[in-house]
Amino acid sequence: MRLSTTSEYAIRSLVYMASCGPELCSVKHLSEKLDIPYKYLGRLMATLGNAGLISSTRGKNGGYTIDKPLSTIRLLDIVQIVDGLDNFDRCLLGFPECNDDDPCPMHDFWKEHNEGITEMITNVSLAEILASKSKKF
Amino acid sequence: MRLSTTSEYAIRSLVYMASCGPELCSVKHLSEKLDIPYKYLGRLMATLGNAGLISSTRGKNGGYTIDKPLSTIRLLDIVQIVDGLDNFDRCLLGFPECNDDDPCPMHDFWKEHNEGITEMITNVSLAEILASKSKKF
DNA sequence: TACATATTCCACCCTGAGGTAGGAATTATG
DNA sequence: CATAATTCCTACCTCAGGGTGGAATATGTA
User: Fold this and answer.
1) Are A132 and B103 a contacting pair at CB < 8 A?
2) Contact, B62 vs B100, CB < 8 A?
3) Burial of A80 (0-12, 13-18, 19+ CB in 10 A)
4) What does the mean pLDDT of chain B come to?
5) Residue A62 in contact with residue A73, Cβ under 8 Å?
6) CA-CA distance, A125 to B89, in Å (whole number)?
7) A29: exposed, middle or buried (C-beta count within 10 Å: 0-12, 13-18, 19+)?
8) Can you tell me the distance from the alpha carbon of A56 to that of A46, in angstroms, rounded to the nearest whole number?
9) What CATH fold (topology level) applies to the domain B5-131?
10) Of A117, A130, A137, the CB nearest to B113
């Protein structure tokens, strides 16, 4: 019942970048601010860049920036790029066919939570997350 | 947002055993009925036995049986034995200190789902699961 | 040129899932 | 009673994938 470490890194990095506005964030800066391994974060940011979620600038004073409206970047998009969506909207016992008509033994107990989480990651965007009162990244 | 494969195996096996009543279930029988790798299931059942959740009988016509009231075996107990509880009641972004007073950026969005799931696995027992109308194991 | 930064390739460690090989206990059967 | 069959049990081995670090390369700025 958790995200992968990589997804955690990605979300935290993007939330921090969003909080910094349009200015460039280098991997080194992000790594130090968020206490994320530098090399690993470098590759993760490249992945997010290749997916079109962020854009990069090389050379001195380079870095990454978010060049899309924050409300268009949903949690779902981030997780999908990093980990895929196989672990979401999934039968708790792993049955490929599990629904109201042909439920697994856990279906009735799992359904509401599964749907709630799926709805949450689908609808929550960086804009909503930034509006929270958190002091952490 | 899923259980480990091993936890899935454990729950499915115990639900099936519960549905069989007090009679012995061999690993071979369970493996074939539930389509779970034989050797892997053997070790898993031994683990559940060592933890006291089920009891074993060796020799011909031997197997495993549940000798406790089904209402006393909670989903939490099963998952705890197999995987531990580190992945439950956990901050979505991995912060060790995350609560209403010092929340992470995702806290407000994750809290209700986290609490709901924790409450579900804590309160649902094999007795309730057996009462469901599922035809799968 | 010198430096800072992104980007890519390779090697490593740990864990989960699964397999191989045998030992220990109990029962069926000649 | 003796032996074979069945079953639990335990110790290692393999393999893939996630997370990590080192090193080298590409690309831009001062």
Assistant:
1) yes
2) no
3) middle
4) 96
5) no
6) 23
7) middle
8) 8
9) Arc Repressor Mutant, subunit A (1.10.10)
10) A117
Task: Give the span between the Cα atoms of B38 and B74, in whole angstroms.
Answer: 25
What tokens appear for B87 in the block?
């992945």
Phi-psi group of B64: left, alpha or beta (phi > 0 → left; psi -120 to 50 → alpha; rest → beta): beta
Using beta carbons and an 8 Å cutoff, which residues of A are at the interface with B?
1-3, 5, 8, 11-12, 15, 87-88, 90, 92-95, 98, 102-110, 112-114, 116-117, 120, 124, 128-130, 132-137
Burial bucket for residue B29 (CB in 10 Å: 0-12, 13-18, 19+)? middle
Determine the Cα–Cα distance for residues A120 and A118; give it in Å rounded to an integer.
5
What residues in B contact A128, CB-CB < 8 Å? 109
Largest CA distance in chain B: 59
Give me the half-sphere count of Cα atoms (radius 13 Å) on the Cβ side of residue B36: 30
Q: Which two tokens stand for residue B96?
A: 């060790």
Return the H-helix or E-strand segment holding B107. Answer: helix B107-123
Q: In whole angstroms, what is the distance from residue B33 CA to residue A75 CA?
A: 39
What pLDDT digit, counting tens, does each position of B53-94 carry?
999 999 999 999 999 999 999 999 999 999 999 999 999 999
The model's pLDDT over B3-48, given as tens digits with 9 standing for 90+, comes to: 999 999 999 999 999 999 999 999 999 999 999 999 999 999 999 9
Q: Are B22 and A112 in contact (CB under 8 A)?
A: no
Token pair of B18, please?
């519960």
Residue B22 DSSP code: T
